[in-house]
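ok so dumb question maybe but i'm new to this and my supervisor (M.) told me to 'just get the structure for Threonine dehydratase' and walked off. so i did the thing. is this what she meant?? sequence i used:
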Amino acid sequence: MAVLLPSKEQLISAGKIVYDAMPATPQYSWPLINQALETEVWIKHENHTPTGAFKMRGGLVYLHALAERAPEIKHVVSATRGNHGLSVGFAAQRHGMIAHIVVPRGNSSEKNAAMRALGVDVIEFGDEFQDCREHAANLAKANDWHMIPSMHRDLLAGVASYWMELFTAQPDLDVVFVPIGQGSGICAAAAAKQALGLKTKIIGVVSAHALAYKSSFEAGCKLEAPVSTKLADGLACRVPDDVSLEIIMSSVEKIIAVTDTEVAAAMKLLFTATHNVAEGAGAAALAGALQLKEGLKGLKVGLPLCGGNVDAKQFSIIIGAWNFASDATQPKTQQFSFAGQRFV
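this is what came out, is it supposed to look like this??
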């Protein structure tokens, strides 16, 4: 049975909950990004939310609805690589709840610290997101905590508020590129597009080192795939979400894969062209657009910078890979390594 996307009225209602906690984020058309892609591009700055990523919107709406229908719930648990956990922590604090968030071992130390600063009980378990999700479900059952999924109608409705902002400001976008982690971002784009009656094409972007959604999309059925990305941890999905995959199957033009090398290049370009910091997943949309550059000329393109929560050490290594010419005007790249992987 087809998944029913939220209506326009439901998205507007969810947006009111979001705006009680934060303002709308800006969208800018940066000259150097336009130059790089040789077309008109609009960057949606979800790195400007109070938690530094688009996920915050979903957590606000989900926990608002949970507090209304089950005010007795005081403990919530979920799994994350960081931004979903920050979202849950921020919203839980507003409703007097305790958030328990499971992260994989070796997760971003700065994302972990940011979650703890919001009062989150950070639990390290396993080596990848799927391990964390299964452990969170076990904790929920053992402790009678409420399990927050990575994808849910309320999460989708909250996240869709940023797409409603972008599509309302720029209703004539020809195409948008959307990174896919667990799918709330791209499914929210589909919901907002439908609600506003737009013809904008949606292209999904996954990591070439985490191909579960791309492989599933192309095969027409749910498939697992190994995860080995070192930069785009927000895209490190091994098992697609059933609801997300169904929406993607019916709403997305195609899905492309970007390498960590392409992601690193996009992170650098975003910084030099806009002086905004992007985490790996946050730069994936731009990486995807750069990959398809030749086919975008003459089109109006929308790209979310969906998160800026990158560890300083990782970002400094990537930015430090620039080797400037003697006149300091012509940057060029050199080879470098991060976490055992070589980039150019």
